[in-house]
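Most newcomers find our protein records easier to grasp once they have seen one. Sequence and backbone structure share a record, each on its own labelled line. Nothing more is needed to start thinking about how sequence determines fold. As an example, a complete record with its sequence and its structure tokens follows.
=====
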Amino acid sequence: MLKLSNLLLNFSDKFINFAKNFEKIKSKTPEIIVLLAFPLLVCFFGYFHEPWFDEAQAWQIAKCASIKDIIFYIPHFEGHPPFWHLMLSVFAKNNFPYEATIKTIACVFSYAGVCLIVLKAPFYRIIRLILPFSYFLFYQYTIISRPYCLVMLAFCLLAIFYKTKNKHPFLYSFCLMFLATIHPFTFIISSGLALCWFIENIENKTFNKKTAGAYFLLFIFYASLIILLIPDSSAFAMNMEYKSNIYMRLLYSFIIIPANCFISSVFSELYKQPYFADDFLLGLFIGVIVWYFIYFYTSNKKLFKTFLIPYIPFAICASKYACLWHVGIIFCFIIFICWITLDIKNNKTKNKNSELIKKCFALFVVFSLFSNLYWNFKSCILDVFICYAKGKKEAEFIKENHLDKYKIMTDWYKEDCTNTGINGTWLTIAPYFNKNIFYNFNEQNPNQNYVFHKEINKEGNALAYKHWKQKGLPDVIAGSPDLSVIFGDYNYSNLYVTVYTNNTTYIQKGVPLSDEVTIIQVKKELAEKLNLKEVKTKTINYKLDLFRISSYIFCKIFDLKDKIKEKLKENRK
């Protein structure tokens, strides 16, 4: 054990020396390479990514909903500030192409944050050059096009103007407002940072008319945003139930989420499980280490409260609901804390074991960077070879065979008192069509071509079922809806034939999750008319598939090598 610890500490010393020597390189070539590689790699891997529900839902809201509804009505059910939808609406309402536009927007804002990290952050150069390719910044917040692409940019701007916040209070307050408009969790952190700033001015007696004006502006802005985000009592998310214990969720949100930023992989599926996951204890252990490092590097500079005050309300809210992509917000927040701590340039500490702790911290940084690079690389490669979400391929199949001319029914939420409409996963088809193609989706308001997260009572469900029944059996079935609920008990499998199948799975930290088989069925007589052949559904073992993928790549490389040799022989002749 002693030998292993000495080996690790020696490795830590070598990393620190390497980082210091790397700083001495005068050429800006490494920065140029990173700033060129980032958008090129995003474009390459982004091309293969199939947008999932959240990406499609945001685009459809931006396209179909009125500006008034986007600002004043939809946030009460979506739970998101309207900024992202408003930005997308500029393009969606003017018929810009869906995928190209939403991916470009995500890339532009994410790239702006990356540029600030590479060129402005006070970290070691090697860290600045690796951070853009970390899992959250590259894959989760750029390849996947969601409002989170704005998070790192907002934190970078806050870090840059942090030292001059009392000199230019309005500039800093605008950055806080920008952060607050991205997501409810970033709103919590933004208001927490504003509170820290207020307390600091009171303690240091630096309160003046300028800062008072900035605080008043922030107060009005935050109050307005709270009014917009107050959830409606019928909002679907307000009545979600979890199997897991509240204390388990609090442990996850307070201790494990910071660990999940860097090394551990305890997924938020814990909210759905009544028991402790296998890696829960490991996540707790790593989480305690992360908290200690944060305390060690901030306590002597009175910056620990700058992390603690915003994080406490975040963790309380996250104990109610949090997903892996929310973890990335804390990843960016910790980068911000490290940035402002180093900017103060007061790294002295009275702890006699400080050198040992610094070596351990350097070791932790190395493992964190490599973990993030591994998660990012594996996720990107998987996204190339695995279908991330249904939508694009299914829409192509429907268009090629003109199935949108017929009556199409898809899955819906069948539980009592829930939103009667299509299963959210099928909304991913909507952006590829100029009209609603499902007759059991928002049939009372067909122009509302997005999922409205509002609960409906049993009477509302029964009325919708009655309307669907009047329209008769569907010609085409997307998914596996329970037709007996609408049309009575019968062996409907005799009427339909499966003509399309696909396998999709979400990817989190390089792990394929939520494997789903997607099918499209048509009536047998229609299949004959359109010359569509029956296909069999299959379930893919993605671990085996990865092995086959690796073998396939190597075979292609050797095939290419042989072809080059043959070509060279021909040229010699």
Summary: The chain is about 60% helix and 5% strand. The beta strands are 408-410, 476-478, 496-508, 511-523. The two ends are 64 Å apart (CA to CA). The CA atoms of residues 297 and 341 lie 8 Å apart.
